[in-house]
């Protein structure tokens, strides 16, 4: 059976201090042990980038560009990337890394 891994699961796997890290990790380990096919899609990685680079003060993880790039590299090793249009994803990834794209948020007062 094939499973599409949700962005929230990827975020919790990347943040080992998150209270939801243990169940996310357990689910991953269990599915891998059962030899299940685990896939990600470009949209999931894009969503991961947005949340992971967002400041903690506005409900993000506050990861650096380098850390997020590293985590995405791991994801691409652990999961099968099911492309929608691979050219779009490839171009997006090059641009966000090259230009250090990170959403800016204004804190509410």
What does this structure look like?
The structure is a single chain. It is built from five helices and three strands. The protein has about 110 residues and is mostly helical. The chain has one domain (about 1-100): Rossmann fold. A three-stranded parallel beta sheet has the order 1-2-3. About 20% of the residues are buried.
Write a short abstract of this structure.
By secondary structure, the chain is mostly helical. 55% of the residues lie in helices and 8% in strands. The mean pLDDT is 91.
Strand order of the largest sheet: 1-2-3
* Number of distinct helices: 5
- Give the beta-strand count: 3
Radius of gyration: 14 Å
Which structural class should the secondary elements be placed in? mainly alpha
Q: Tell me the domain tally.
A: 1
* Shape type: globular
| Estimated share of beta-strand residues | 5-15%
Q: How are helices and strands ordered from N to C?
A: EHHEHHEH
The helicity comes to: 55-70%
CATH class, named Alpha Beta
Mean pLDDT: 91
Task: Point out poorly predicted stretches.
Answer: none
| CATH T-level fold name | Rossmann fold
């Amino acid at each position: 059976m094939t499973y599409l891994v949700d962005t929230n699961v990827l975020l919790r796997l990347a943040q080992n201090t998150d209270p939801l890290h243990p169940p996310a990790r357990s689910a991953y380990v269990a599915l891998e042990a059962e030899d299940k096919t685990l896939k990600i899609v470009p949209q999931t990685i894009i969503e991961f980038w947005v949340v992971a680079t967002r400041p903690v003060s506005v409900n993000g993880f506050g990861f650096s560009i380098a850390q997020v790039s590293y985590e995405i590299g791991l994801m691409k090793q652990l999961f099968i990337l099911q492309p929608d249009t691979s050219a779009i994803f490839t171009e997006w990834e090059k641009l966000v890394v090259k230009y250090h794209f990170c959403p800016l948020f204004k804190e509410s007062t």
